[in-house]
Protein backbone atom coordinates (compact mmCIF):
# COMPACT_ATOMS: atom_id res chain seq x y z
CA UNK A 1 0.00 0.00 0.00
CA UNK A 2 1.41 3.40 -0.96
CA UNK A 3 1.34 6.35 1.42
CA UNK A 4 1.12 9.92 0.22
CA UNK A 5 3.73 12.04 1.95
CA UNK A 6 2.97 15.56 3.11
CA UNK A 7 5.82 17.91 2.18
CA UNK A 8 6.40 21.62 2.07
CA UNK A 9 8.38 23.63 -0.45
CA UNK A 10 11.01 25.79 1.22
CA UNK A 11 12.71 28.68 -0.52
CA UNK A 12 16.37 28.40 0.42
CA UNK A 13 18.60 31.45 0.82
CA UNK A 14 22.33 31.22 1.31
CA UNK A 15 23.16 30.16 4.85
CA UNK A 16 25.26 33.25 5.61
CA UNK A 17 22.28 35.47 4.82
CA UNK A 18 19.70 34.01 7.18
CA UNK A 19 19.10 32.23 10.45
CA UNK A 20 16.77 29.26 10.73
CA UNK A 21 14.82 27.60 13.46
CA UNK A 22 13.88 23.94 13.06
CA UNK A 23 10.72 22.68 14.73
CA UNK A 24 10.74 18.91 15.41
CA UNK A 25 8.50 16.79 14.40
CA UNK A 26 4.85 17.58 13.85
CA UNK A 27 1.93 15.37 12.94
CA UNK A 28 0.86 15.44 9.31
CA UNK A 29 -2.18 13.64 7.86
CA UNK A 30 -1.24 10.76 5.58
CA UNK A 31 -3.80 9.03 3.39
CA UNK A 32 -3.84 5.26 3.71
CA UNK A 33 -6.38 3.70 1.39
CA UNK A 34 -9.85 4.99 2.30
CA UNK A 35 -8.88 6.42 5.64
CA UNK A 36 -6.55 9.10 6.91
CA UNK A 37 -4.20 8.58 9.83
CA UNK A 38 -1.76 10.84 11.65
CA UNK A 39 1.89 10.02 11.17
CA UNK A 40 5.04 11.88 12.18
CA UNK A 41 6.89 12.59 9.00
CA UNK A 42 8.30 15.99 8.16
CA UNK A 43 10.29 18.65 9.94
CA UNK A 44 9.29 22.20 9.05
CA UNK A 45 11.67 25.12 8.73
CA UNK A 46 10.92 28.70 9.72
CA UNK A 47 13.09 31.74 9.11
CA UNK A 48 13.64 33.79 12.22
CA UNK A 49 15.31 36.81 10.57
CA UNK A 50 15.07 38.96 7.48
CA UNK A 51 18.22 38.30 5.41
CA UNK A 52 21.05 40.81 5.66
CA UNK A 53 24.37 41.16 3.87
CA UNK A 54 27.02 43.28 5.62
CA UNK A 55 24.31 45.00 7.64
CA UNK A 56 22.25 45.94 4.59
CA UNK A 57 18.80 44.52 3.93
CA UNK A 58 18.56 42.69 0.61
CA UNK A 59 16.33 44.03 -2.13
CA UNK A 60 13.51 41.84 -3.44
CA UNK A 61 15.54 41.11 -6.58
CA UNK A 62 18.63 40.12 -4.58
CA UNK A 63 16.52 37.88 -2.37
CA UNK A 64 14.92 36.23 -5.40
CA UNK A 65 18.29 35.69 -7.06
CA UNK A 66 19.64 33.95 -3.95
CA UNK A 67 16.72 31.52 -3.60
CA UNK A 68 16.20 27.99 -4.82
CA UNK A 69 13.03 25.96 -4.39
CA UNK A 70 13.43 22.51 -2.89
CA UNK A 71 11.63 19.98 -0.73
CA UNK A 72 13.16 18.26 2.27
CA UNK A 73 11.54 15.38 4.15
CA UNK A 74 12.70 13.84 7.43
CA UNK A 75 11.60 10.37 8.56
CA UNK A 76 10.20 9.71 12.00
CA UNK A 77 12.66 8.29 14.51
CA UNK A 78 11.05 4.85 14.52
CA UNK A 79 11.44 4.33 10.78
CA UNK A 80 15.09 5.41 10.85
CA UNK A 81 15.88 3.19 13.82
CA UNK A 82 14.20 0.19 12.21
CA UNK A 83 16.22 0.49 9.01
CA UNK A 84 19.55 1.87 10.21
CA UNK A 85 19.82 0.44 13.75
CA UNK A 86 21.08 3.54 15.51
CA UNK A 87 23.49 4.71 12.81
CA UNK A 88 22.94 8.07 11.14
CA UNK A 89 20.32 7.76 8.44
CA UNK A 90 21.48 8.63 4.90
CA UNK A 91 20.56 11.92 3.29
CA UNK A 92 19.43 11.28 -0.29
CA UNK A 93 19.63 14.23 -2.70
CA UNK A 94 17.46 13.76 -5.79
CA UNK A 95 18.29 15.92 -8.84
CA UNK A 96 15.37 15.97 -11.27
CA UNK A 97 15.44 15.90 -15.05
CA UNK A 98 14.81 19.08 -17.06
CA UNK A 99 11.15 20.04 -16.75
CA UNK A 100 10.51 17.51 -13.98
CA UNK A 101 7.57 18.33 -11.73
CA UNK A 102 8.01 17.82 -8.03
CA UNK A 103 4.96 15.56 -7.84
CA UNK A 104 6.84 13.15 -10.12
CA UNK A 105 10.15 13.47 -8.28
CA UNK A 106 8.37 12.83 -4.98
CA UNK A 107 7.47 9.32 -6.17
CA UNK A 108 11.17 8.55 -6.34
CA UNK A 109 11.93 10.15 -2.98
CA UNK A 110 9.27 7.94 -1.37
CA UNK A 111 11.51 4.94 -2.18
CA UNK A 112 14.01 6.35 0.29
CA UNK A 113 11.55 7.95 2.75
CA UNK A 114 10.06 4.53 3.39
CA UNK A 115 13.59 3.30 4.07
CA UNK A 116 14.08 5.85 6.85
CA UNK A 117 16.18 8.35 4.88
CA UNK A 118 16.17 12.12 4.82
CA UNK A 119 15.44 13.28 1.26
CA UNK A 120 16.09 16.56 -0.54
CA UNK A 121 14.42 17.09 -3.92
CA UNK A 122 15.51 19.72 -6.42
CA UNK A 123 15.12 20.32 -10.16
CA UNK A 124 17.15 23.01 -11.94
CA UNK A 125 15.23 25.64 -13.98
CA UNK A 126 14.81 24.94 -17.69
CA UNK A 127 16.57 28.10 -18.81
CA UNK A 128 19.60 27.17 -16.74
CA UNK A 129 19.83 23.67 -18.19
CA UNK A 130 19.08 24.43 -21.84
CA UNK A 131 20.35 28.00 -22.25
CA UNK A 132 22.96 28.91 -19.63
CA UNK A 133 24.75 25.58 -19.84
CA UNK A 134 24.64 25.50 -23.67
CA UNK A 135 26.33 28.92 -23.81
CA UNK A 136 28.92 28.00 -21.19
CA UNK A 137 27.52 30.06 -18.30
CA UNK A 138 28.18 28.21 -15.06
CA UNK A 139 24.95 29.23 -13.35
CA UNK A 140 24.48 25.66 -12.14
CA UNK A 141 27.66 25.96 -10.09
CA UNK A 142 26.11 28.48 -7.69
CA UNK A 143 23.00 26.31 -7.42
CA UNK A 144 25.19 23.32 -6.56
CA UNK A 145 26.79 25.32 -3.75
CA UNK A 146 23.41 26.32 -2.32
CA UNK A 147 22.22 22.72 -2.39
CA UNK A 148 25.24 21.53 -0.44
CA UNK A 149 24.79 24.36 2.05
CA UNK A 150 21.32 23.00 2.84
CA UNK A 151 23.07 20.09 4.57
CA UNK A 152 24.67 22.55 6.99
CA UNK A 153 21.44 24.51 7.44
CA UNK A 154 19.70 21.37 8.72
CA UNK A 155 22.76 20.08 10.59
CA UNK A 156 22.93 16.83 8.61
CA UNK A 157 26.38 17.49 7.13
CA UNK A 158 27.83 14.59 9.15
CA UNK A 159 25.33 12.07 7.79
CA UNK A 160 26.11 9.75 4.86
CA UNK A 161 25.20 11.52 1.58
CA UNK A 162 23.69 9.66 -1.38
CA UNK A 163 22.64 11.05 -4.78
CA UNK A 164 19.91 10.01 -7.20
CA UNK A 165 20.41 11.82 -10.51
CA UNK A 166 18.04 11.94 -13.49
CA UNK A 167 18.87 12.52 -17.16
CA UNK A 168 21.33 15.10 -18.46
CA UNK A 169 19.44 17.89 -16.66
CA UNK A 170 20.22 16.36 -13.29
CA UNK A 171 23.67 15.20 -14.35
CA UNK A 172 24.72 18.72 -15.39
CA UNK A 173 24.03 19.88 -11.83
CA UNK A 174 25.67 16.76 -10.38
CA UNK A 175 28.82 17.64 -12.34
CA UNK A 176 29.19 20.90 -10.40
CA UNK A 177 28.43 19.20 -7.10
CA UNK A 178 31.24 16.73 -7.81
CA UNK A 179 33.60 19.59 -8.66
CA UNK A 180 32.77 21.39 -5.41
CA UNK A 181 33.32 18.22 -3.40
CA UNK A 182 36.72 17.90 -5.09
CA UNK A 183 37.86 21.49 -4.66
CA UNK A 184 35.91 23.44 -2.01
CA UNK A 185 37.29 23.20 1.53
CA UNK A 186 33.85 23.89 3.02
CA UNK A 187 32.49 20.65 1.58
CA UNK A 188 35.59 18.46 1.86
CA UNK A 189 34.28 16.79 5.02
CA UNK A 190 30.99 15.65 3.48
CA UNK A 191 30.77 11.88 3.36
CA UNK A 192 29.30 10.82 0.00
CA UNK A 193 28.69 7.07 -0.12
CA UNK A 194 27.23 6.54 -3.60
CA UNK A 195 25.01 7.67 -6.47
CA UNK A 196 22.26 6.24 -8.65
CA UNK A 197 22.16 7.73 -12.16
CA UNK A 198 18.95 7.27 -14.17
CA UNK A 199 18.98 7.77 -17.98
CA UNK A 200 22.31 9.63 -18.10
CA UNK A 201 24.82 10.81 -19.08
CA UNK A 202 24.73 11.46 -22.81
CA UNK A 203 27.36 13.18 -24.93
CA UNK A 204 27.07 15.34 -28.05
CA UNK A 205 23.64 13.99 -28.95
CA UNK A 206 21.84 16.92 -30.60
CA UNK A 207 18.90 14.77 -31.68
CA UNK A 208 18.42 13.49 -28.15
CA UNK A 209 18.70 17.00 -26.72
CA UNK A 210 16.03 18.20 -29.16
CA UNK A 211 13.74 15.34 -28.14
CA UNK A 212 14.25 16.26 -24.49
CA UNK A 213 13.52 19.95 -25.15
CA UNK A 214 10.44 19.07 -27.23
CA UNK A 215 9.06 16.92 -24.42
CA UNK A 216 9.84 19.66 -21.91
CA UNK A 217 8.11 22.43 -23.88
CA UNK A 218 4.92 20.37 -24.09
CA UNK A 219 1.75 21.05 -26.10
CA UNK A 220 1.07 24.41 -24.43
CA UNK A 221 3.76 26.07 -26.60
CA UNK A 222 2.53 27.13 -30.04
CA UNK A 223 3.95 25.18 -33.01
CA UNK A 224 5.61 28.29 -34.49
CA UNK A 225 7.33 29.25 -31.24
CA UNK A 226 8.33 25.63 -30.64
CA UNK A 227 9.92 25.45 -34.10
CA UNK A 228 11.86 28.69 -33.54
CA UNK A 229 13.11 27.60 -30.11
CA UNK A 230 14.15 24.18 -31.34
CA UNK A 231 15.94 25.64 -34.37
CA UNK A 232 17.88 28.16 -32.27
CA UNK A 233 18.75 25.52 -29.71
CA UNK A 234 19.88 23.04 -32.37
CA UNK A 235 22.15 25.55 -34.11
CA UNK A 236 23.66 26.71 -30.81
CA UNK A 237 24.34 23.22 -29.50
CA UNK A 238 25.67 22.00 -32.83
CA UNK A 239 28.11 24.90 -33.17
CA UNK A 240 29.31 25.21 -29.56
CA UNK A 241 29.19 21.57 -28.50
CA UNK A 242 30.19 19.75 -31.69
CA UNK A 243 31.78 21.93 -34.39
CA UNK A 244 33.71 24.24 -32.04
CA UNK A 245 33.98 21.88 -29.07
CA UNK A 246 37.67 21.05 -29.68
CA UNK A 247 38.26 24.74 -28.85
CA UNK A 248 35.40 25.59 -26.47
CA UNK A 249 36.15 22.61 -24.20
CA UNK A 250 39.20 24.48 -22.90
CA UNK A 251 36.81 27.19 -21.68
CA UNK A 252 33.88 25.03 -20.64
CA UNK A 253 33.88 21.23 -20.79
CA UNK A 254 30.56 19.50 -21.19
CA UNK A 255 29.18 17.54 -18.25
CA UNK A 256 30.06 14.19 -19.80
CA UNK A 257 33.76 14.90 -20.28
CA UNK A 258 34.12 16.83 -17.00
CA UNK A 259 32.96 13.95 -14.79
CA UNK A 260 34.57 11.24 -16.92
CA UNK A 261 37.97 12.95 -16.82
CA UNK A 262 37.88 13.64 -13.07
CA UNK A 263 35.49 11.07 -11.58
CA UNK A 264 34.40 10.90 -7.94
CA UNK A 265 35.60 7.90 -5.95
CA UNK A 266 32.25 6.71 -4.55
CA UNK A 267 30.28 3.84 -6.18
CA UNK A 268 27.78 4.54 -8.97
CA UNK A 269 24.80 2.56 -10.24
CA UNK A 270 23.65 3.45 -13.78
CA UNK A 271 20.06 2.64 -14.72
CA UNK A 272 19.44 2.88 -18.45
CA UNK A 273 17.70 1.24 -21.40
CA UNK A 274 18.61 0.38 -24.97
CA UNK A 275 15.13 1.65 -25.88
CA UNK A 276 15.95 5.19 -24.67
CA UNK A 277 15.52 7.63 -27.58
CA UNK A 278 17.09 10.59 -25.76
CA UNK A 279 20.29 9.17 -24.25
CA UNK A 280 22.27 6.72 -26.38
CA UNK A 281 22.91 3.51 -24.47
CA UNK A 282 26.46 3.40 -25.80
CA UNK A 283 27.19 6.77 -24.15
CA UNK A 284 26.22 5.31 -20.78
CA UNK A 285 28.13 2.07 -21.35
CA UNK A 286 31.29 3.88 -22.48
CA UNK A 287 31.05 6.22 -19.50
CA UNK A 288 30.79 3.33 -17.05
CA UNK A 289 33.73 1.58 -18.69
CA UNK A 290 35.85 4.73 -18.26
CA UNK A 291 34.96 4.76 -14.55
CA UNK A 292 35.94 1.13 -14.16
CA UNK A 293 39.28 1.70 -15.90
CA UNK A 294 40.03 4.39 -13.31
CA UNK A 295 39.12 2.12 -10.42
CA UNK A 296 35.74 3.71 -9.63
CA UNK A 297 33.09 1.09 -8.69
CA UNK A 298 30.32 1.33 -11.29
CA UNK A 299 27.41 -0.99 -12.08
CA UNK A 300 24.97 -1.06 -14.99
CA UNK A 301 21.34 -2.17 -15.22
CA UNK A 302 19.65 -2.26 -18.63
CA UNK A 303 15.85 -2.23 -18.34
CA UNK A 304 15.63 -3.17 -22.01
CA UNK A 305 12.27 -1.77 -23.11
CA UNK A 306 11.55 1.32 -21.00
CA UNK A 307 11.86 4.81 -22.49
CA UNK A 308 13.76 7.82 -21.14
CA UNK A 309 13.32 8.30 -17.35
CA UNK A 310 10.48 5.77 -17.45
CA UNK A 311 12.19 2.78 -15.86
CA UNK A 312 10.44 3.28 -12.52
CA UNK A 313 7.07 3.73 -14.21
CA UNK A 314 7.45 0.50 -16.22
CA UNK A 315 9.23 -1.60 -13.58
CA UNK A 316 8.32 -0.05 -10.20
CA UNK A 317 9.14 -2.98 -7.90
CA UNK A 318 12.39 -3.90 -9.63
CA UNK A 319 13.51 -0.27 -9.76
CA UNK A 320 12.78 0.43 -6.09
CA UNK A 321 14.38 -2.83 -4.94
CA UNK A 322 17.57 -2.16 -6.90
CA UNK A 323 17.87 1.39 -5.55
CA UNK A 324 17.32 0.30 -1.95
CA UNK A 325 19.74 -2.62 -2.27
CA UNK A 326 22.44 -0.38 -3.71
CA UNK A 327 22.00 2.14 -0.89
CA UNK A 328 22.25 -0.63 1.71
CA UNK A 329 25.43 -1.92 0.04
CA UNK A 330 26.95 1.57 0.11
CA UNK A 331 26.09 1.91 3.80
CA UNK A 332 27.69 -1.46 4.57
CA UNK A 333 30.82 -0.38 2.69
CA UNK A 334 30.88 2.77 4.83
CA UNK A 335 30.58 0.74 8.04
CA UNK A 336 33.41 -1.52 6.89
CA UNK A 337 35.64 1.45 6.13
CA UNK A 338 34.95 3.05 9.51
CA UNK A 339 35.67 -0.24 11.29
CA UNK A 340 39.02 -0.55 9.50
CA UNK A 341 39.89 3.00 10.57
CA UNK A 342 39.04 2.21 14.20
CA UNK A 343 41.17 -0.94 14.11
CA UNK A 344 44.03 1.01 12.56
CA UNK A 345 43.88 3.65 15.29
CA UNK A 346 43.71 1.03 18.04
CA UNK A 347 46.74 -0.83 16.67
CA UNK A 348 48.94 2.27 16.70
UniProtKB/TrEMBL annotation:
InterPro entries: AB_hydrolase_fold, DUF829_TMEM53. GO terms for cellular component: nuclear outer membrane. The chain crosses the membrane at residues 224-244. It is a single-pass membrane protein. Pfam families: DUF829. SUPFAM superfamilies: alpha/beta-Hydrolases. Keywords: Membrane, Nucleus, Transmembrane, Transmembrane helix. Coiled coil: none annotated. It is found in: Nucleus outer membrane. Belongs to the TMEM53 family. This is Target of EGR1, exonuclease.
Amino acid sequence: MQHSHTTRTIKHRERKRCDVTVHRPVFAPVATGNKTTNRRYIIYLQRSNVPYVQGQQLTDKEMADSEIDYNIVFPDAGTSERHWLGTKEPVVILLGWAGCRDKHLSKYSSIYNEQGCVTIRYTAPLKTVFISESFGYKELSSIAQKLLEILFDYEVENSPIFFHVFSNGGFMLYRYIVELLHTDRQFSTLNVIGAVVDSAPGSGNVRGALRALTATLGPQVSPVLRYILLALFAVTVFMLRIVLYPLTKYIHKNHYDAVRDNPPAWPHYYLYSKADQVIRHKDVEDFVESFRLKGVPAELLDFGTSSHVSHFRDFPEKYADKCRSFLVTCMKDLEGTEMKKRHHVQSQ
